[in-house]
Design a protein that fits this description.
alpha/beta; 8-stranded mixed beta sheet; 4-stranded antiparallel beta sheet; 12 helices; about 20% strand
Length: about 425
């Protein structure tokens, strides 16, 4: 055997040994974003659900996550996935009037919910697509419309009747697709905690039982993710908290008692907030004077004088006048004479100013290979979740978002 052949044989053997000893290339991370709608920031401490407690120990937990104003479902779910405040992404409330189209948007109008016209910003699933990653959504506000020109690669049209276990099973199917087809970002939504919170309030035994059912679902997700052997970062959030209400003669502020029949104005109400649209400045000022003189359990603002923290001064879908009710009260259509008592037992609502109403606080719990373990952080605004997810996935975020990567930088682990 020649010396040259012996040299090359030795070189090939060493190369094989080196390759065998070299660890596998680090897998790219995945993000599963979960929302338990209406899960208040103190439910874990209050009810001690075991899977949530274990989840928190294994990752990072915020003392609370502060919703954007108003603390409603559609505005805040869309804020979480765009990094924009409602006053910047366009879903300024669950119900609002669009002056450009002269149409009232509401979460119950399916044709509008699926219309990309109403959704600003770049949702995280589209951001992932634009930068070469697959994405999926098992229910999330905005995922049923071609925002920014496309849908998530995989998505489902909202149907509240779909069993929660079926939703989880579909997510696991997506994560078991061939790598080239597998979504790196997935959103998953559950409504059970919010529904029960509305029905019986945040302090009821029924709500406690529902929290433990949510806990079971989280435990099921955790177990199934562990079986996949994939680097999945799980972020568990909610959109808002819940405020306990009780029936009394003063509970409701009736809209028919605020506006005269001859007032030809456009009104959109979501319970905690009323938007009043009136282009004529003289009529608007007359109405403003009338409303402020009769304020009982609510405050009236001109749009340009709303608090800066609401980010409500610029968007045309925000009412020219904005009425905000005090916690413990609620705007209601009709008048006291035409409405019967709502119910004898407590119930729950949300929508109040989250910056001054602690009960509106949401949750942020995260764990996974890119999340610091055993960390508790102070409350932060929900606009900052978007850049955190983008960082995990290696995505470049738009420069005009409200969220800042530095807010959650100490949560991230390389």
């Amino acid at each position: 055997m020649s010396k040259r052949f012996a040299f090359f044989s030795l070189f090939a053997s060493l190369a094989f040994i080196f390759a065998s000893c070299t660890p596998d290339k680090k897998q790219d991370p995945y993000v599963l974003l979960i929302s338990f709608d209406g899960f208040r920031h103190d439910y874990v401490a209050k009810y001690q659900p075991p899977h949530f407690l274990d989840f928190i120990k294994e990752g990072t937990a915020a003392k609370a996550m502060t919703p954007s104003f108003p603390s409603k479902t559609f505005p805040n779910h869309y804020t979480i996935v765009t990094g924009l405040c409602p006053g910047h992404h366009g879903l300024v409330d669950n119900t609002f009037y669009d002056p450009a189209r002269k149409v009232e948007y509401s979460m119950g109008k399916r044709e509008l919910v699926e219309d990309a016209y109403y959704y600003g910003g770049t949702p995280i699933w589209q951001l992932a697509q634009q930068q070469g990653l697959k994405s999926a959504s098992y229910f999330w506000v905005g995922s049923e419309a071609p925002v920014a020109g496309s849908y998530p690669d995989y998505y489902e049209i909202y149907d509240g009747a779909v069993p929660n276990e079926d939703r989880i099973e579909k997510v696991m199917e997506w994560l078991q697709l061939p790598e080239a087809e597998r979504p790196r970002f997935i959103s998953l939504y559950f409504s059970l905690v919010d529904s029960e919170g509305h029905d019986s309030g945040p302090n009821s035994e029924k709500l406690k039982t529902t929290v433990f059912e949510a806990d079971r679902l989280l435990g099921l997700i955790d177990t199934k993710i562990a079986e996949l052997n994939l680097p999945v970062d799980i972020i568990t959030t909610s959109d808002h908290g819940m405020y306990e209400m009780k029936e009394s003669p003063e509970t409701f502020v009736y809209l028919d008692n605020l506006f005269a029949p001859e007032d030809s104005i456009q009104i959109a109400s979501s319970g905690a907030v009323v938007h009043v649209y009136e282009e004529d400045s003289l009529t608007r000022e007359k109405l403003f004077k009338q409303l402020t003189e009769n304020e009982t359990f609510y405050s009236t603002y001109r749009k340009l004088e709303t608090p800066e923290r609401w980010h409500y001064r610029e968007h045309p879908r925000v009412g020219d006048l904005v009425l905000v009710v005090e916690p413990g009260h609620y705007f209601r259509n009709g008048s006291r004479d035409t409405k019967k008592a709502m119910m004898d037992s407590p119930w729950g609502v949300h929508g109040f100013d989250p910056y001054v109403t602690p009960e509106m606080g949401a949750i942020f719990y995260a764990k996974g290979p890119n999340v610091k373990k055993g960390l508790e952080i102070d409350a932060f605004d929900n606009v900052h979740v978007y850049p955190f997810i983008a960082r995990i996935l290696g995505l470049t975020t738009p420069t005009n978002i409200d969220g800042k990567q530095k807010v959650l930088e100490n949560v991230y682990v390389e």
